[in-house]
Every structure is written in C-alpha cells, then in structure tokens.
Amino acid sequence: MIGHSNAAVVDSSLSGVRVGVVTFPGSLDDRDALRAVRLAGGTGVALWHGDHDLKDVDAVIIPGGFSYGDYLRAGAISRFAPLMEQITAAATGGSLPVLGICNGFQVLTEAHLLPGSMVKNNHLHFLCKDQRLKVENSSTAWTSSYAEGSEIVVPLKNQDGQFVADERTLDELEGEGRVVFRYLGGNPNGSRRDIAGITNEHGNVVGLMPHPEHAVEAGFGPDSSALGEVEVRGGVDGLGIFTSVLQKLVNK
Amino acid sequence: MTTETMSKKFNIDTVEHAEQTPEQPLPWAELGLKENEYLRVVEILGRRPTAAELAMYSVMWSEHCSYKSSKVHLRQFGDKVTEAMKEHLLVGIGENAGVVDIGDGWAVTFKVESHNHPSFVEPYQGAATGVGGIVRDIISMGARPVAVMDPLRFGAIDHPDTPRLVHGIVSGIGGYGNSLGLPNIGGEVVFDSVYQGNPLVNALAVGVLRHEDIRLANASGVGNRVVLFGARTGGDGIGGASVLASESFDSSKPSKRPAVQVGDPFAEKVLIECCLELFKASVVEGIQDLGAAGISCATSELASNGDGGMHVELTSVLLRDPSLTPGEILMSESQERMMAVVTPENTAAFEAIMDKWNVEYSWLGEVTDTGRLIIEWAGEKIVDVDPRTVAHDGPVYERPYSRPEWLDGVQADSFAGDRPSDLKAAVLELMASPNMCSKDWITNQYDRYVQGNTALAMPDDAGVVRVDEETGLGIALSTDANGRYSYLNPYDGARLALAEAYRNVATSGAKPMAVTDCLNFGSPEDPEVMWQFAESVRGLADACQELGVPVTGGNVSLYNQTGGVAIHPTPVVGVLGVFDDVARRTPSGWREDGQAIYLLGT
Amino acid sequence: MPRIVVDVMPKPEILDPQGKAIAGALPRLGFTGFAEVRQGKRFELSVEGDVTEEVLQAARDAAATLLSNPVIEDVTRVEVIEDAQ
Amino acid sequence: MPRIVVDVMPKPEILDPQGKAIAGALPRLGFTGFAEVRQGKRFELSVEGDVTEEVLQAARDAAATLLSNPVIEDVTRVEVIEDAQ
Ligand SMILES: Nc1ncnc2c1ncn2[C@@H]1O[C@H](COP(=O)(O)OP(=O)(O)O)[C@@H](O)[C@H]1O
User: Fold this and answer.
1) How close, in Å, is residue A101 to chain B by CA atoms?
2) How high is the ipTM of this complex?
3) Which InterPro entries does the record match to this protein (chains C, D) (predicted)?
4) pTM
C-alpha cells in the first residue's frame, strides 16, 4: 500500500535546499507548508511578510489562508507586502521558484506574477473535499517529479476558488502548455476550462488552488490516492510538488 | 480631553455624586436586576451605585455571567470528584477552561459554550461570534487553539424559517473557524421542532500548551500594568443597556446601539498569533478574554482573582464609537479583545509584539494593594467596589423544582405500531430521515485539514488530532446529547449523553480523560424545567464519577424557550481522550471486504 | 436595458471588518488622508421593459428583504440609472 | 466629514456568481421583471479635511490599484458625495 512510504522518499542530499514560506497576517497553512518541505527532505525557512529579507532561500512558497481576512479580495492586500517586492523581482526573470497555494495563488495573480484571477465558487460555499487532479505539465520547477498526465488526489478547501480569465488569456495558457493542473471528476467550483493551477512562461512560478501540503504525510492526508489504495488518510500524492523543487535545485 | 469626553464628564455620575444624591432613581429593573438584587448592591456599597457600578453589577449578576440559578446544582461536579479523577487535572472548574495533563509535559484545554439566542437573531454573525468567543477562552489559558467542534440543533427541516438558520449558522461557523485556521473535527446536527424558535449553537474549542505555559486570569503584583488590546470597543451587544445612554438619567435621548455583534475573524487570528508570542516571550502575568460583560467582567475577575486591587482610567479605552458612555464602555461586548497584566519591565517587549502584529492596545491602569477596583473617568471616580462582590458574590438561588406531572403520561406512551413487513424499506426510510442522513453538506463547508494534524474527522464518531509530531501523542474528542431521551428521563438522558461521547472516544482508540458540557435548558423560573436541570446535572455528575472522568468546565444556557414552551433538556457533553500515538486510532466503519463483524455489549 | 441601482452599506454603528482592513492598508501603500473606510455592496438590476413604479417598488422590496440584512445593513439607495451607452 | 465614493463592478464579460444567484432567487421570491443582476462593491472613504484634487487623485489611484482588480473588475465611479447631515 502507498501511504507508509514517506520515509523512503527522503533523500539526504536535499536537506541543503532552503525553501522559504511566507507568513502574512492571516496565513493559515504556513506551518503546514514548512512541514511539507521538511518531509520532502528540504529545509524550511519561515519568512515574514513585513521583512525585506529573503534569507538566501532557494525557493519560496506563499501558503494558504485568509491573508488580511480576504475581505476585499483574496490576496489583494498581501500583494503589497514589502517581501513581495523581493519575491516579484526575483521571480519575474525566471530564476526564483515560487509556489502559490490557494490564497498564495490568489496573491500571485493579484501581484500579476500569474494571469487571471479567482472569484467566488459558483456554488458560493466554502468547499472542503479530496480532489482528483491531472498533472498537465511536468516540466515546471514544481512538478518535475510527476509523469506528464499523471493523476493525484489532494485536498481542496476554499471559498474563492473559481479561476477566471478572458478567452485570449485562456487560449494562451492552453497554447503554451501553461495549464499545470486540471480538475478531474467534475469541476468543483466553476473554474474556466477546469483549471486548477497554472504557471508563468518560465515555469518557475506556479499557482494552484488545491493544497498539496495536506497530502504529504500518511495518516493526515486524504483518504484516497490516484496511485492506488491507501490506508485511512494515507494519501501522499502532494509530496511530489515539494520533491520536484528540491531535486531541481540540488541538480542545478 | 476631547469635547466629547468633556461633555460626558459633565454628565458623569461619580461616586461623590452618588453619595450626595441617595434618592436618585436608577433603572435597575430595565437592566435586568431584581429588587432584592438591587438592594443587595446598595447594601454592599453602603450607598446607591453609580451608573457605571450599576452597569457592572447588572451584567455580572445576570444569569449568563453569575450562574445564579445553576450554581447550587453545578457544585456536584466538584463534590463528586475523587482524588483519582483529579490526578490529571492541572486546572479545574472555575477558570476560563479546564486544563488536562496529557503527558510528556503537554496539556490540553477545552470547553464548549452556547451562542443560541444571538444565532437566532442573526444566524451568520451569531454563530461566528460564538466560535470567536470560545476560541478566546482557550487562548486566555495560554494555549494554541488546535480544533473546533459544533453541536447544533435546528427546528423542523421543512419549516420555512429553518433554511435561514441552517445556512446562516453553518456558514457563520465555517466562515469564522476556517478563517482562523482551526480544523473542524466534528459536531452534531439534529432537527426537531422543539428547537424552532430556539436553535442551539454550541461551539467547542480545544487548545494545546506546555505545562509551563498555563496562564490564569489574575492580576497580581502591585504596580503591574493593565492593558486592553485587540479590537476597539464599540456599542456591540449593549442594546438592552441603552437606558444608560444618558447617565444623568434626565434625558430620553435615543441610543442607537447595535444588539448584533459582527465578528472579525482576521482580527482574532492575529490576536491568536500575537498572544502566543506574548506567552512565548513570557511578558504577561495574567490574561483574560473579553466576552459577555466585557470590561466589567475582565477587570472584576482579574482583580478579584489577584491579591490586591486595580485602578483603571476608562477614558484610555480605544473606542470605535466615541459617543459611548462609561457604563456602556463597561458593558460593551465587542469581540476580539483581550486584557492582560504586564510588569513595568515588560511593557516595551509587550508593545513590540503588538506593533509587529499591528494590534492596537491601550494601557488602562495598574494593579494596586487597596483591595478595591477603582475606575475613573477623566480623573473622576465612577466605580469604587470590592471586585469580589461583582465577580463572585452575585446572588445564588435555590429555585424551586418539581417533577412534571405530564412525565408519567409521556413515559407510558410507548410505540405500539406493527413491526414493518418490509424491513429493507423501513431501514431505508430511517436512513433517509434528516437526523440520520449524511452530514457531508455541512462538514464539506468546514476545513478539516488545516494545521496538518487531523487524524480523524468526519465521518468518524470522534475527531482525533495529533499534539506532538515527534511522538504522535494526541487527543480524541466527541460531543453528544439526546434531547429526546432527556425529555423522557433527564437523569438517564445526561448519563447516556456522557456514555455515548465516552464510547465514541474509547472506540477511536483513546483513553477518555475529561469532560466539558453545555447545558441547554428552558427557563429556570419554571419549576419543571428546573427539575429537568437538577436531574440532568445529578445524572451527569453521577455518571462522571462512575466512569472516573471529571468535568473540567462548561457552560449553562437557560431561558431557551419560545413563548411558554421550553426546548427539550439538551445537555451536550464533550469527552476528551488521549492517545500515546494517534497512529493507533481506529476509524468508524468498515473499509475492506472480508472483515468479520462482531456485536459487543448487551 | 434600463438598470436599477441598489446600494447597501453596513450600518454606521456596526463593525465593518472589511472597511477596517482596507483602512489599515491604505496608509501602508502611501494613500494618506483617509480617516475611515466602509465597504458596502452595489447591485445593478437590469429591467426587462420599462421601469414602472411597480418595478421600482419590487426593487425596493427586494432590497429590503433579499439584498440587505436589515439587522446589520442599511439600503442607502434604490434608483434608476441611465445607461451609459 | 466629506466622503469619496468608489464603485467597483465585475466586468461584464466575467461571470458574477453572486449576481447570478440573486437573479435566480428573485423570481422565487415573487420579484419578476429583472433580467440580470450584478453585484459589485461600494466603498466610502471618509476624508480628513478638505477634498482637494490631490486627495481625489489618491482615491482614484487607490481605486485602481487596491480597491479593484482590473482583470475582473471595473471602477465605475470615484466621486465626492455630500454628507446627509
Ligand atoms: N455540525 C457539525 N459539525 C461538524 N461535524 C459534524 C457536524 N454534524 C455532524 N458532523 C460529523 O459528521 C459525521 C456524521 O455525523 P452523524 O451523522 O451525526 O454521525 P453519528 O450519527 O454517527 O453521530 C461525524 O463525524 C460528525 O462528527
């Protein structure tokens, strides 16, 4: 059975890779993202939104949550955080790998590091479920551990998760292979073209609505995996996101 | 001084003024005090109270804050506890929440509370602020909140008002809890027409802490400073106190005070992180959350649990609504506020943490050795009381109770239908009833993953959360109640509620350790309701003793009735269990083919 | 198509967490001089046909019952607006 | 205190899930005759002191950068309003 295989994945050479996780006021899954980096074998570094210091990290994760309560628009206020300037500068050229999860994805679109935007789910409710996804692009900094076209199950949990963009942008994303994750088994929130995650033109910046950091540890993940049968809460399909970036940076 | 403060000062009812105008009529009845209670206040003070004192006594002596009708019965939870049951109790009944030792230097604090009436008036905000309030209780013990649960009761599923309540309450609980990053690990949903005009919204929160981090609500150390931080104080929740709008009592100026409180989960999330940083840096001596009765409660409880007195300047309170009078400021129930006691040496460190999290604060005064709680308004004394008389010496009632006459009839009325011929159809019908069918449509609106430690949640009978990542040490929680059983037999109903929650925790694989409860009943002034209450408490206390688990805290919610009709007695019981390693938890239900099925018990 | 605008604002005495978050952010972004921000809702209802007094009344009723929560919000405007085009 | 109003509406080509839900609910509640509903936001910024051209410009800039997201929303109005009192 899959699910008890965590330990086997860890590769000690990865521990030198430093992955920063930014905490904004209202971030919720920041400690979870740090744990995911650690379980994947890397070193997690806590970053503070108000600092101007990226602490020499090799990659950055903008975690989920409700930064500033998401009252205005999800991610709208956070994008102006001092640390976002550093991140934007380093990410734009294609060098710094940046992953935005859920609220982090929203921050990246607000900061124009990724196109499109998120609006309320079409059913208007918060939705928490184990979501099946297709990995459409395995050449990004965050997906190289997966085979192209492979399927994974990771938790989805949000209120403003409906990805929207104009047709031209959508066509462009599709044409350039920049749709990274697509919902399978029914569209959970009305996202255009079932898009769950996208990347920029360099493949270093990736944003997705579902939460891979909640499918990295057997016993605390989803009840299912696209890779085979699992124990109760044994799904660890999200771990590949974190090993991807660690491996890429180690081999650099 | 602003002109606003000036004009308020002009009208202010000072202690001196109270001494000079003993005959001044006061609106004590409008504030909910009974005549004997008012006379008792006069006796304690040796004069008439000032408007501000009246405000404090009236809220602190309300049923909600003083437990005046339930106290005599609740004592059994303490009386029936044995030394063995107390072995793992670090903090027992009486504090904001009980604290249980779970080993390896870890402790857990948990409590369930009601927000029934506000949720009927404004379902979303009522439920949201219910979650907010119980979470602040947990923070104030020094703990990081790690999960919430929500036992709910609604009226009939097909009643036209039910959708408003169900959707509002569920989104309110989700909206607030999800935004705080607290996994929702369980709860209940029951539909029954007795709850039509009186839904029950109980919210449970659980937090974890190291033994050395336990904080208590007391103000000690002469010269230590008292600080209020978090949200600004507005006119929230003091609609009924609008009689205090003009504290010279000579004007009928209408007061526009919102009876409804709006929650700000973002402010609370920041408050959680900021409090945890305060605890880690050891910069607070005592801390108290502000809930019902606001500053009245926080100052009088902190002062009376400490060893001296307290001196407070009320104009220092940061206001959202500058027109508030001193009495209203004392009664305001604005959410997302905390009060702390800080040594002078630690003030700079305290302020640095507030600034980091962008939390507003104001220094209100200091701890004294006078034994008095003195509150001033721009230097004029408006409150001068012994804080114990406000916080602890409220009235206690031995309300009459009697077994309802209708009970025998109800108990005799057994079900006499024929055994259904088509068992399959009967099972299907049963399973499709609103109380039996899947609750996914609710639980899917709650985040059960956040924090990454949830080992079991929906659809399992108990929620399980890991506490220590190194060892797997963790806890299980379940809440249960059955109002129908309790209606038929309140003594056994309470015992069954405990037994069910206890079983749910035990079958998950945890060792049951402690109990919290939320006792939802009708009016204590009705002797039959009072009997249901007395029987339920007796049943719960007896059952706790039999099972060897102590009640560590909880909440009493009375007056749950519409017109003359009370809800079914609904004692919601929460049981906490401990795992040495959550990897050993057992989910409910069968997952694989070929497993053998056994039926255990009688 | 003619439109009716409905503006709904949080009651002045009620806490407005959304407005508060924005008011906190403005000075950090260099926008000073604003004392307070309140965030409300603006609805635009397109009307099929002419805006008769009846339709306007329906909009007023909808504003009071569906579009606003009278416990915490005020309807501050129900008005026909001219279409820009 | 003088106030500046900022209205922000979802772009016409972007689906507005909340407006759509309201449009669906209206006829169920007996409010007919409405073809479409769009739900936007209305901000009221209270200004300390006078509303100079500078302050108004700050409000316009805040509207364009913080209060709206140009990918999905249009700022339809930035205007000083008279205080009722
Ligand atoms: N209001 C609620 N909040 C959170 N979880 C709930 C709520 N109501 C029910 N649940 C969860 O849904 C699952 C099924 O509930 P229920 O059908 O009541 O189970 P049971 O009948 O076995 O007690 C349980 O895990 C329970 O904790």
Assistant:
1) 13
2) 0.92
3) PurS, PurS-like_sf
4) 0.93
